[in-house]
Amino acid sequence: CQKDLLTPDSETQVSTLDLAQFSTVARIDGQVRGLYTGLRAADFYGGRYIVYNELRADNYVAQSSNSVTATQTYAYTLGNGAQEVNGFWASAYNTINRCNLFIEGMAAKGNAVIGDATGKNYIAEAKMIRAICYYSLLTLYARPYYDGNGSKPGLPLRLTGNSVSGNFDLARSTVAEVYTQVLKDLNEAEIDLPANYSTALNNTIRAHKNTAIAYKTRVYLTMQRYADVVTEANKIVPLVAPFTATSGVAHALQADITNVFKTPYTTTESILSMPFVSGTENAAGQSALGSYFFGVVLYSMNPTGIIADAGWKSTDKRRSFIGSRSGFTVLSKYPTLAASNYADYVPIIRYAEVLLNLGEALARSTTSVNPRAVALLNAVRNRSDATTTFLVTGFAAPQALYDAFLKERNIELLGEGFRSPDLLRLGLTIPGKESIPAVLPSSPLYIWPIPSSELLYNKLMTDNL
Amino acid sequence: QTRIITGTVTDKMDGSSLPGVAIMVVGSNNGIQTSADGKFSLKVPTGAQSLKFTYVGYLSKTLTVTGNVINVALEQDSKQLSEIVVTGYGTQRKADNVGSIARVSSKELENKPVQSFDQALGGKAAGVQITIPNGVLNNPPVIRIRGTNSISLSSFPLIVIDGIATFTGDASGSSAAGNALASINPNDIESIDVLKDAAAAAIYGSRAANGVLIVTTKKGKSGKATVSYDAWVGSVKPRNLEPLLDAFQYTDLKNEALKNFGTYNTGPTGTRAFFALTNDASGNPINTNWYDYIYREGFSHSNTVSISGGNESTSYYLSGNFTAQEGIIVKNDYNRKSGLFKIDHKEGKMFLLGGKISYTNQENLAATSSGSLPGEAFGTGGLGRLAIVTAPNVAPLNPDGSYSIFNATTIGRMGNVGSDVGFYNPSTVIDLDRSNNELNTVQSNFYLQANLTPWLNLKTVYGIDYILSDNDAFFNPINGGSAASLGSAAKSLNKNKRWVWTNTAQADYTFSEKHNFSLLLGNEQQRSESDGFSGSRTTLSDLAFDNYAAGFATPATAGAVGENYLVSFFSRFNYDFNKKYFLTANLRQDEYSAFGANNKKGIFYGVGIGWEIAQEKFWTKAGLDNLFTTFKIRGSYGTIGNFSGLGNLASYSFYGTGLYAGASTLVPTQTGNDQIGWETSDKLDVGFNFGILNDKITVEAAYYKNSLGGLIYNVPQVPSAGLPSTPQINIASMYNKGYELTVNADPVRTNNFSWNTSLNISFNENKITSLSQGIDQFLTTTSGLESASISRVGSSLGMIYAVPTAGVDPATGRRIFIEKATGKKVLYSHNITTSGFLRWSYEDGTAAPVISINDAQVAGNTQPKFVGGFSNNFRYKKFDLTTTLTYQLGFSIYYGTNAGLRDQRFWNNSTDMLRRWTTPGQITDIPKLNFTDNVSNGSSFPIDVNIYKGDFVKLRNISLGYTLPTQFLSKAKISSARLYVSGDNLLILTKYPGSDPEVSSNGNSTSSLGVERNSVANGRTLTAGLSLKF
Q1: How far apart are the C-alpha atoms of B1004 and B375, rounded to whole Å?
Q2: pLDDT digits (tens, 9 = 90+) for B757-808
Q3: CB-CB under 8 Å, B932 with A338
Q4: What's the distance, CA B883 to chain centroid?
Q5: Domain limits, chain B
Q6: Mind listing the pLDDT tens digit for each residue in A309-326?
Q7: What is the CATH architecture of B80-221?
Q8: Which residues of B touch A1 (CB under 8 A)?
Q9: Residue B1019: strand pairing partners
Q10: Which CATH number fits domain B2-76: 3.30.70.1140, 2.30.30.280, 2.60.40.1120, 2.60.40.10?
Q11: Closest chain A residue to the Cα of B525, Cα to Cα
Q12: Number of C-beta neighbours around residue A250 at 10 A
């Protein structure tokens, strides 16, 4: 008998005995990158998370009735058992657990292998990613922060790593408690993240200080903490044009927005994007943005949505993202086809968003029309449409400027997953489309239900009502 | 004074001559054997009255000497043939065996229109349930011995072929199924012994909890070489396909659905949507029956030649088989070429040695996915689904002969506007795609046995079992699964290699003529390794080429490796006192590489006792021996294990590699369990066997209870815990208990007419007794989408789970659902823009919560209460007639296909929809049509409307044969010839409305059986054949 054959070693995977996954620098490096691939998963920024937030709003009409490709989200017929409701939840929490395991493993072994300085950077990346996960979950599964100032049920807040089976019952923290953790992670990440990387690629696909700052502007905006948006944004947005970050990576708007959405996808405007590489790192067919909005035309542009806006001129460069395919008007922002495996980079944060976050926060911070806010609005508009310039005097009341920002975001960030969160953070009605009626903020459909699998197995979990 | 008597001894059944028949002059020691051609010549004293003819396997015959020529026809003794049972590492007289073993003989397996022997086992043995899940060729049947004995692992029995535990399951990596067991030509099988209880199966230790099938192939018998030739031709057709709407009905109903939904629009601009007929080139409306493009009548043939023979020291068996079979789905073909050579040799008085070599080449061919193999049910391109979903008012080709396509993944819309009318164009994928598999199998062994003394032998056997599986696929760039990627081709090769080395010592000794002892000691090692490589390429550069090797860009490759090792020690002890009291004890220790670090080693045992009451004096005193020839009571108990389906590395937690912008990544991939071990089955078995009227009727009855513990369950963790996979934990328990009854009778046996009959029936009850802490139920999905199966503590595995409904509201035509929390009726309105209804409302019109799978209730058992078979053999002169009925009773099926057949998206529908609700006050079971409505009829979540009783009785086989008279054959040197015609699956008595109540979408799954979703039907087969012996 050959006793050694009774204890086989894997020839393809790293067993976790003795924390072997932290035993070499290469493995630790690999794990950090692996945290990002959690964000990039098909159910998350691999496309579906953005798809869901787009389809909930009014800019598309369905050309498919396949529930596998999100028609239930589109038509507000979701139940707790829906694939998207369960899939995105699992994907985000899987990534959170990767971060938790990584943070603990670095303390137990990894820091000693790789050195404390690099270890600190890496842990900060893990915290950054964890914050993105929790924030993204909040946008779909919890009532917006404005509703009761975060007092509504939030998420189970998990900050320790799980590696074997166990009793994982955990009740929901409040929305505010989850936001507190998100901000704590982002603040700590800002301190420990490197200012920049040596390549444009890494400055785009890995988190650095400005990534944490930029993301905080989004989080505070969602919480309607406008003064904090301004404080954070001011770290990377000068008071006056040209709006270019003066510390860390020199983020700036590109002169031509279309350069942001094509090879090599690594301009200084892209603060964080998820990379795809045709052949080796493909976007999944039924998840990729290019498949939903362009290649397969599962959803075409709603003729009465934002594309019908008269103020969005036909000469606006951003109109070039509205194309035609198979006889439909479609979003062509992600034009890579199945033959090239939908290998468009997916943006998570762009500098344009930070400018709009800051501008809107400035606008909403005062009762008058804030000139810097108008300047920021113009920076985004004029980059694509030099013929339209907003004037401070053009806004009769602050509300008009708020509305202008909301519309500018709808145009600028179309197809990037902002429309539904923008409506929700402000408690606005989600407009209807085709035969789908509008959804009032008071409706249970305003947010997603809690996944049936979480309700079934987590005895302390409660559903959204 | 003597005289010489001559004659010929033949087989009564087929007229062939019998060599080696012993002929004795009654009352003397004078005797002789027949020669190779069955002739004899014997000197007999004048005073001798009679001769006795005896031959192994035949009924003896004594004839009075009347003339100088005596020709004798001996009749086969079916009982004597089943005298022996194979027990694993040995054989035993059936009369001495106390275990529960069922035997199926070669006669029941030969010349059947099947690909593998397991498909022919249905109804043949009590406690053995065989289900043929669909009409895809060479698809492994579902085998259950005494119920489903596992939850997360496999419940498929261990299959041992000539002493080597073999690979099972689907060995194909393509859309064509490739049952690993089809490598054996069923005509090469001598017998199959089914070990069911602990006394029989414990000798296989940690692998035997699902029962064991021991397959023994034929070997040579000493005597003149016998050449056999068996051939059949057959034809198979689909049966009982669901009736669908034709083009006219489809167009009308879909337009009605659009109008009801408020989106019918024939206007010149805007969002136009309507369905319309299209004329073909000759000006007639297109009316396509897609069944004609996807199903066919398939033709098959099989030819087997074998030579066997030998002398006193050496015997041999050589056979070759070629079969080419066509399935009911176009381009689904099966071809097998196989050869088996066996030789057994006796060297001197001490040594026996020999072995076998078998090589089989199989081609499993398909154009594309059938949609019927496990996991494929919702595949967009599954042919079973395309046949029923594609609109009948479009054609596969445009008038110019090109494929009608709308875009890369959908068929052309022709006159229809604003909606898809199908998924892939069936003709494009059938014509241009392929998904083929080739299996090359080598099974070989070599043994050496030394008979040290008359009562002690040592034996060593070394065997190999190799399966090399090649897959070759092409997906066209025009329309279908890879058209968006401009075509793709894939190849893969998987090597599965196993060796088994077994060493045994066997002692058999009798003391004082009454104490019979037998002891077996053994050691066995089994090593399995797998290694695979696969590549795929996309973007075809030239449509003229469809080979992986030519004209593609963008390659992607992958591989997989695996290994396991099992080392065992085992022993069996048999004792009987004067063939009256019997004892059997088996013990086995297994160490297996896949078990957790501290859990590698397990000990398994089984003990059985028997009492042959008919041997007792009080029995004869009571006169019971007049009625009962034998009467044996037996019982057994033991604990054995199961790890079939356990991953080689299930005990480890892993991080796996990937890429992030070209740089390597390492992420958690598996949640391991270092405590993982085998599942246990405590098996209790009690029963009795008796024969009455000189064994004219024999009865076997048994009660059993399998208490299953430590069942591995993929314990679902809270999703927000974020574990990378669901860990396997030995946590659940369950039992199967039931009764089995087998009755064999030989009521009539005359020269011209005989009838024998066999009935078996098994009753089984399955119940889950515990799951894991905190979890008392779980859902199992069909192909990851539809959760129609629930398993919960206190009921059987895989109950149907569906939302209750209460018909259709006669006033408004809306489907009525029942809310679980309140029991209230909730009406669904798919149209909420123009109907004035809320989407979900109570009867009073107030808003109701959304009805979903959360409102589902347990609604039916999918495991049959009764399964069994009923066979009859009649012979009248040279004619023989055999019928086999199989039945499964007391279960339900979730007919998910029905939800698709009534789905109100563009999908074509069944003719049920013609009775849809149209007018207030109308009473009907079909709701008002609303375009895109996938809720009302069960597509969105399962509803009780689609649950049906599955009970069936099937005429599995009927076969009529004629044996040609010998005088016609002798000139051609043919010793026997039989012609026959046979029909399979000709008749099904069932209330199930789908094509076949055996059809199932989830293959060998333990917890989601009894669900049918888009599977192709089983066919109906007619065959005609010929068996010749030279």
Answers
A1: 11
A2: 999 999 999 999 998 877 788 888 888 888 889 999 999 999 999 999 999 9
A3: no
A4: 20
A5: 2-76, 80-221
A6: 999 999 999 999 999 987
A7: Beta Complex (2.170)
A8: 523, 525, 567
A9: B238
A10: 2.60.40.1120
A11: A1
A12: 14
